[in-house]
Structure formats: structure tokens, C-alpha cells
Amino acid sequence: MIVNPIKNTNYPQSICSNQSYLWNGIVQTTSGNYKDTFTSFLGCDSIVTLQLSLNPIKSFSFSQTICSNQSYTWNGISRTTSGNYLDTFKSSKNCDSIVTLNLIVLPGNNKSSSFSKSICSNQNYFWNGKFEYLSGNYLDTFPASNGCDSVVTLQLIVKPVKANSFNDTFCANETYKWNGSDLKNGGTFTKTLAASNGCDSTITLNLFKRALPSVLTNVSGNNIIALQNNAGYQWYNCATNQPILGATNQFYEVKSSGSYKVAVTSSKCTDFSICITIVDSNNINRIHDHSASDLHMIYPNPSNDFLNFIPQSNIVITQLVVTDAIGKKMNIPIEKMNATHFILATTQLESGVYYLTIHRLDNIKEHIQFYVSH
């Protein structure tokens, strides 16, 4: 009798812990020995034992913190929001390892914001440690306790300030109206105007005073002559203070007794001479408006502090009057030493041209020109 053996065979197999193995019609998911019986060609059973082992799947996680204006690349994707993100890696036993990213996005202080500010071009704005005065965008960063900075953008707008200037002139015997004031001297003057953009505009006046023409006159024969050359002339009758028709030459020929003056115009400025009194056409040379009379003595001329006047001996003087070049009366001390000697105190007069008017008992007025120089 022949006894055939029963074969026993072990079949080791390993799977990952997240897998299963089909054996003997049953899905196996845990480690262990699982037997299955097969009939051999000799008619004896063969027993095969499945030795199933499970390889573990590794799983771990880590955390990462970013600011809300940042991103984190994980598994080939840029992540910008908080959450758990998985990625799978192969292990040495061909079982996947799962790594989980715990992404935390910090809110709040990492915000970006902007604001606008307008200034005038003659102003500046202090920002980020500096004074800014040009239009543009300027950034400043503020640190936060969570490590995320906040970025604030200043949008600076610089509005223009308009500035204009012009030149003008006026005559020395006039006043100039400017910004509610009457100006009597030249110079630079500025007026500020409110503009629609909120930035003041400035207007600058460069003002120049024009000198007056000379109004000195002289008498020659029966002519009164204006000493200013290359000017415009208009002669007046002092009794009526009206211009004499057609009398526009540099000289005026006197036709009848009276008092006359001339308006001299040069560089758009006009000034008047003193009135020259004419007694009659035959006695014209008794009128004086020059610096030294051939009939009277006046010295020193120019004068510094005192002026001596010695009239012609055969005339009687009733009054002496001192006027400036435009006919304004000057109140200065006049001392009569005797009938033929007068002393005029000129200390208080400014340097310039003056006239001494002599009122005589015979109703004749004479004018003598003199100078004061300090």
C-alpha cells in the first residue's frame, strides 16, 4: 500500500494597511495566517497557508502660518486661505505616506489701504519721516504684533499756486491805488487772492515812481520861458486858472498884464510852475524867477542854513513869502535886520528849488529863485 503525502505550503504576502487581499473567496484586511485546501494530482489535499502581513501607512501633519497678502505652495498649488491640505508620498514599502498641511492665514493688520491728501504747491506734507511736496503715491509700512505688516499708501495731490507779476509807474505828484491803499513811493507790493482750488494766488506789483519835469521858468523881454526841454507845454492864466487857447509852446509871449503859469508834461507826468506876475508889457523885466536878480542881492545861493536877502534900495517891501517848486508856501523864520537886509532860516527846508516872492508897496510882485543844499 502506498500512502501519498499531504503537502503543506506557506504563501507569505504583504499589503498596505489601507488595502485588502482576496483569499479563499474572502477579502482579508488584517494580518494573519489563512489556509486554503487544494486537491493534488495524487488525490491528496494540499494545504496552502496565506501568511498575510499589513504594512502601515504613515500619516503626519504640520502647520504653516502666512499673512493674508502672502501665499503658500503645497502639492503644486498656491494656497491663500486657511485650511488642511493633504499630499501623498510613496514609502520604501510602496505604501503611501500622507502629509497634511495645516495652513493658518493671519487676518487683520496685514491689510493694504490708501488715502488721498491735497496740498498747495507752496506747502509740503510729512509722511514716512520725510516732507513730500510732489504729486505721487507714497507707501508706509506699520508692523503688527502678529508679524504681519500693514501697508498704507498716500496718494498726494499737489495743486498749483498761481503767481503773477506786473510793472507799473506813477508820477511823483500822484498816489497809486493798490489793494485798498494809496501808495506814495515805489517798491514791490504783493496782493493775495483766494482761488477756486483752495490755494491762494498772488499778484506782485513792481511799482516805479516817475520823476516830475522841471517847472522852472525864466523871463526874457516879454516872454516867459519854461526851462524843461523836449516836453509838452500848456500855459495858464492864473486869475482864471484856465488854459490859454493855443499857448502850447515852450515860451509864452505876454500881451497884457496878469499872472501866468505853465503845465509841463514829460514821460506822462505833468507839473505846474509858480505863477509869474506881469505888471505891464513895458515893465516886463521887473519880474524875476531866476536864481539871482540884477536888481536885488541874495546870498549864499545855494543856501545851507541861512539866506541873506538885500533888496533894491528904492523899493518898499510889504511881505516876503517862500514857496517850493509847486507853489506850496513854506513857513520858515524871516528876520528883518533893517529896511534893506533880511535873513531867512533855511535849515528846516529840504534840499531843492524854492522861490522868494516879494510883495512891494507899489503892488508889484517879484520872484527870485534860490536853492537849498544840505
Could you describe the 3D structure shown?
The strands form twelve sheets. Strands 23, 24, 26, 27 and 28 form a five-stranded antiparallel beta sheet that branches. Strands 29-30-34-33 form a four-stranded antiparallel beta sheet, with no helix packed on it. A four-stranded antiparallel beta sheet has the order 32-31-35-36, with no helix packed on it. Strand 29 and strand 30 (306-310) form a beta hairpin. Helix content is 0%, strand content 57%. The model is unreliable at 281-294 (pLDDT under 50). It has no helices and 36 strands. The chain has strands at 7-16, 21-23, 26-28, 32-39, 45-55, 59-67, 72-74, 77-79, 83-90, 96-106, 112-120, 125-127, 130-132, 136-142, 150-159, 163-171, 176-178, 181-183, 187-193, 201-210, 217-220, 223-226, 232-237, 242-243, 251-253, 258-266, 269-272, 276-278, 297-299, 306-310, 317-324, 329-330, 334-338, 341-345, 352-360, 365-372. It is an all-beta fold and 374 residues long. The chain has six domains: 7-55, no CATH class; 59-106, no CATH class; 112-159, no CATH class; 163-210, no CATH class; 217-284, Immunoglobulins (Immunoglobulin-like, Sandwich), CATH 2.60.40.10; 297-372, Sandwich (Immunoglobulin-like).
